[in-house]
């Protein structure tokens, strides 16, 4: 039994490596800038959703306010860069650390809330953050910040001629978020989180410090999401509160995980691979002026999935596996 | 024999309701002690106080020579208090082995070690064949067993069993009894709350009877069952007189 478990872990790692290499080769075949953009966004949302999944999927603390950490990553990086000339790489780390600290500071009061009340608190806090940035003159208020781009530079992490560097960064971030999840899944933290999600009282009786494990999950999750925010800001070369802290980001982090399978290793990647291209395509072909149609389409998809496959798309794979298992057992 | 667990004058009030009044009990090392009493006697409350779910309104609780009155449940588990729940609280989305690993992780952070320990405990509790099954797929008797397994994986000095034998078929209950004996033989002290007298009495070394939040009688099982006060608490005064 131990063996089959180790085998499964190694197989997951192998599949991830193969997928990462395949994804890395994609630009050889995809020259179209529009498609490249979709790939970059897909990888970014896969990474974000994977990070969201740590707190909300594994630890079970559903957050619909992760846009706050995304925005903090973006703003920290660009404020440090435009005001103090700090390179985006340091800003990115700084933003990650700041987001982790804020996540824990917010967790201190809010992790005492259970269920719906916690979700409501996360939405409210993210909206407050958005309002603060819209009115904070030093940070550009509602006008935002334009990042001065002076040609291609890895040092400043900005590129005008090609999207490829962004593509590879997004891929690396996605791999990082996946690997962190993979690694934590088979650690004390991973087990503590799942126990906290399933039954906090029982977890407490088994020595799990419930509050600390929620804090740990929040910190890791916020840190990775803020790195994503910093990346997005560099990619757009322009940020304003609505475009890095809007509620849609909170949704777009949650939905891929929900679609693919919440609290699973592969769910967020799978969900993002389906959802994000679909969103972008519907937006450009049907959406046109309004921002509504794409939301309607994947809203409908989520409803369908939650009715037909409440465990997400990955459950299709485990179902097939379970059937094989039964066959194997009866033989 | 030094006491492993001691409650000193413990009171617990919920608003106007007094669930425990001035409860002082001793549990010695290596004992199996039964905590019995009619419904509403305050057994579960006392259990929760000992496990650290909530602090008592008044009085103190001592475990292994240390005052643990204000210590949270997780910390008491680290000190060696393991428990099961009257209403089973399995981690439903996790497999049986993973449920037990959560317990084992109190003593080690090395996953390989925790997994080995979990397998050992599943072997001990007779759940080894069900290791890879989801906890939600277990039958009720197995879920009770899993509660015990999980608690044992924390390597407790004192195991609190909250009605683990209640609601089982006679055969299941007999295997449960055998398991409790095995646990004691492994050097773990057991304090168990139970309703079913005919199963508990042959099992325990000592019985403590609670009634209306107070310790009514305590002593050897054989003496306790004949005590008129106990009979009247369970069946009413009329029966006590005729006994």
From TrEMBL, chain A:
It is a multi-pass membrane protein. InterPro entries: ABC_transp_permease, LivM-like. Keywords: Cell membrane, Membrane, Transmembrane, Transmembrane helix. GO terms for cellular component: plasma membrane. GO terms for molecular function: branched-chain amino acid transmembrane transporter activity. PANTHER family: HIGH-AFFINITY BRANCHED-CHAIN AMINO ACID TRANSPORT PROTEIN BRAE, HIGH-AFFINITY BRANCHED-CHAIN AMINO ACID TRANSPORT SYSTEM PERMEASE. This is Amino acid ABC transporter permease.
TrEMBL record, chain B:
GO terms for biological process: D-alanine transmembrane transport; L-alanine transport; L-isoleucine import across plasma membrane; L-valine import across plasma membrane. Residues 5-237 form the ABC transporter domain. One of its GO terms (cellular component) is plasma membrane. Keywords: ATP-binding, Nucleotide-binding, Transport. Pfam families: ABC_tran (PF00005), BCA_ABC_TP_C (PF12399). GO terms for molecular function: ATP binding; ATP hydrolysis activity; L-isoleucine transmembrane transporter activity; L-phenylalanine transmembrane transporter activity; L-valine transmembrane transporter activity. Involved in beta-(1-->2)glucan export. Transmembrane domains (TMD) form a pore in the inner membrane and the ATP-binding domain (NBD) is responsible for energy generation. This is ABC transporter ATP-binding protein.
